Write the structure tokens for this entry.
Amino acid sequence: GDPKDYSDIGFWRKFFDADTDIISDYVIYNKNSKNKTQEPSAVKANPFGLKNMLGNVMEYCADKYSPDAYKKGGASVKDPIIKEGTEWVVRGGNYTSDASKLRSASRDYTKHDAWLKTDPQQPKSIWWYSDIRGIGFRVVCEPDSSLKAK
């Protein structure tokens, strides 16, 4: 559906609530997070048996951020990997996000300097963002080849 249908942001939300009941069953976001990340058991698995693929924490991605990444190759661009830049792509929203940001197409970028302000290490870490708790990564692995599809 249209992400705006699930958003709490906008003029009409003063009069009509967004219908996010089904979303709340599957993802952690600002309405059900209690302002912190949650254990996987807090939500149901999706049809693929996976939990927390959106929401809870933003996914730290392998490509660098470019605001025009999808414009560079025209309409034929699929999965652009950008290697130049200073910030990294993050996707999927986190536990503080509005429901409209709980999509893999929801793309933002790291705020490296801001997220390292209170890092006590000297020199500051390039991996540990002490000032953002809503970022993580997804583990991708090949299925066991001995398992047969049912």
Summary: The helical segments are 21-26, 112-115.
